[in-house]
Specification:
mainly alpha
């Protein structure tokens, strides 16, 4: 049985580096695969990396904020699964107003 080594990522900045260290094309490919497969953990790690690297608070992002974002991802993926929602082309799942129905969230 072959053994492999992996870098141990302790804190949010270290985990964000997993995404940041990728070339942009590979980062995009992995994000698309995560969205296509509705991969909860990969989408969470991407979201966490974005908040840490691009958010106003950076590495000081509140644990409550992280918890809220993680909860929202979980809930959205449940909704997306129940509605056969395609994360890569979300506009295609909604009926347009010409059919007499409005998209969710539009008054």
């Amino acid at each position: 049985m072959p053994l492999t080594l992996d870098v141990y990522r302790v804190n949010a900045l270290d985990r964000a580096r997993n995404w940041n260290d990728l070339e942009s094309g590979e980062r995009r490919r992995r994000a698309v695969v995560a969205a296509r497969d509705k991969d909860r953990e990969a989408l969470w790690s991407l979201t966490e990396a974005y908040l840490v690297l691009n958010g106003a608070s950076g590495t000081s992002v509140s644990p409550r904020t992280l918890k809220a974002y993680r909860w929202a991802i979980d809930r959205f993926l449940i909704y997306a699964g129940d509605q056969a929602f395609n994360l890569l082309s979300p506009g295609l799942c909604c009926l347009n107003s010409a059919s007499g129905r409005q998209r969710a969230g539009v008054a």
